[in-house]
Amino acid sequence: MKSAMEKVRVSKLMSEQGLCSRREADVYIERGWVLVDGVAVTELGTRIFPNQRITLAKAAQSKQDASVTVLLNKPIGFVSGQAEQGYRPAITLVTAQSHFKGDRSPLRFSPAHLKGLAPAGRLDIDSTGLLVLTQDGRIAKQLIGENSGIEKEYLVRVEGRLDAAGLAKLNFGLSLDDSPLKRADVKWQNDDQLRFVLREGKKRQIRRMCELVGIKVTGLKRVRIGKVLLGDLTQGQWRYLRREERF
Question: How many other C-beta atoms are found inside a 10 Å radius of the C-beta of residue 74?
């Protein structure tokens, strides 16, 4: 535990307090948009005591209010982040033409919404479903920060024999990368499909979990992140996260 007498970088505290990401904090500090006990901080690397009060200037708040978050139904064959091995990144699907016609957000597509838009979490190239891309560091931290406990729900089609003991292990008792997995909620959805609810996101976690109990994933779709559902989005379509929606 940090001592109240031990100074910490302002940017680190801002991230821990959910004010913004550390990268955004550095930008705000350089612009004089960060106040510590009411006094502007402008030098990167400045350290303060954890009990000092950090606030954002109105300019920083306005910038955050203008940031957008996109919900995309990613098809198979697209990577979540940077292009790799000839595969296109999911952000290339965010166009005016693929904007969900039922979007209830007042926002309309602008190329400016693509600037700084980055995936908050990954979805494997051979998986489909809900992918979040955001300009807002607060949302990114909420979804992929090291202490994030946001639920993610998947429908997983499998083949092979899974007995009661194997199902119990999927719920709790497996390890990946020499580390025990957090408790999951795994149930049969129908004869060949499982419903997974996870609170962590290791690389290809569900596929690897299934391999450990002797079954194979043949299809995987993410249908929910926190309180936000995939809903009526068809593959390749996207919509804006509305202001009143919360993960």
Answer: 27
- Give the predicted TM-score (pTM) of the model: 0.82
The alpha carbon of 184 is separated from its chain's Cα centroid by a whole number of angstroms, namely 18
Catalytic residue among 65, 124, 177, 191: 124
Where b means 16+ CB within 10 Å and e means fewer, 19-45 reads bbbbebbbbbbeeebbebeeeebeeee
- Interatomic CA distance for residues 211 and 202, integer angstroms: 14
Question: What is the CA 236 to chain-centroid distance, rounded?
Answer: 18
* Shared-domain flag, residues 55 and 32: yes
- Residue 93 resides in a domain: yes
pLDDT tens track for 159-203: 999 999 999 999 999 999 999 999 999 999 999 999 999 999 899
- Residues listed for the chain: 247
Q: Assess whether 124 carries a catalytic annotation.
A: yes
